């Protein structure tokens, strides 16, 4: 099997080391790079456009819940993403799949299981924990919204993040150094692509990507 260019994005050095060992069995040692924050991951992706696979920790510093995955899928739709997390909520796993993750590996998994999961993903398959049944939520409003995020251009995605922060069109235009009329066009396109009625609904559903993970983590604490 040819080597796959990969990045492990996780802030825990010990787990990165273990994951790197498991990944090496499936994709080889040399190409695997490491990042400890979401920002450093995107800097690395910019510097290494040949990257084919990213292991993304759900709670990596800089990520607001699932927004980190959504941003990664939006900007790099051709890169395979394997989520790794201590969070084993079926709801969270379902949303990750809706956002385009190719696998969701609990951190409690053995190195052998992780290696097998990676091999399946490289072969074009999807891997999920056997105990997870994501079917009930696959057609939920949030799942459909998550899938539609991939339709946005990177610039439209940036506009959406500012809409979710409550910024007005003129404030977004100032931040992006473009005309307010252009922002209005972006907003109209965003609402159409996301199949939502207004910017308020779009902002609520986008912020829910972070809220769902936060609430689930609190419930399991």
TrEMBL record:
Ranges where the Response regulatory domain occurs: 5-122
Record domain HTH luxR-type: where: 145-210
Domain of life assignment: Bacteria
GO molecular function, one term: DNA binding
SUPFAM superfamilies to which the protein is assigned, alphabetical: C-terminal effector domain of the bipartite response regulators, CheY-like
Record-linked SMART domains: HTH_LUXR, REC
Xref: Gene3D superfamilies: 3.40.50.2300
Keyword DNA-binding: yes
Annotated InterPro entries: CheY-like_superfamily, EvgA-like, NreC/VraR/RcsB-like_REC, Sig_transdc_resp-reg_C-effctor, Sig_transdc_resp-reg_receiver, Tscrpt_reg_LuxR_C
Keywords: DNA-binding, Phosphoprotein
Modified sites of kind 4-aspartylphosphate: 57
Pfam families: GerE, Response_reg
PROSITE patterns on file: HTH_LUXR_1, HTH_LUXR_2, RESPONSE_REGULATORY
GO terms under biological process: phosphorelay signal transduction system; regulation of DNA-templated transcription
Protein's name in the database: DNA-binding response regulator
Organism this protein belongs to: Pseudoalteromonas peptidolytica F12-50-A1
